[in-house]
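Lab notes, practical 5.
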Amino acid sequence: MAHYAFLDENNVVVEVIYGRDETETMNGVGWELYYGNVRGLRCKRTSYNTYYAGETIYNAEGEAIGVTQTNSQHTGDGIPFRGQFASVGDIYLEAEDRFITPISEEL
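Output from the prediction step:
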């Protein structure tokens, strides 16, 4: 089994589900595409076993926009996947193919 994150038009995670294993397909179609089509949202797989330690991420203007870890860790012997496990409210960075947790404006 695997986890999948659904993204809104701004690449913000709006839901995370437990779904089919990424090695399986539905008539040759991968699960990211399948679930995305069913929900009408972009869908990206995320790994429950990948976690971050809190590196700050900055935009081109030098403003802090989120936290993640470039050298993400995996709880087992696996390879870290997409920076961290996605949670509702996290942001998916397309160019870097990873999720980050946005910095709260209240901080």
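Observations recorded by the TA: The CA atoms of residues 12 and 61 lie 20 Å apart. The beta strands are 2-7, 13-19, 42-46, 50-51, 55-58, 64-68, 73-74, 91-93, 98-102.
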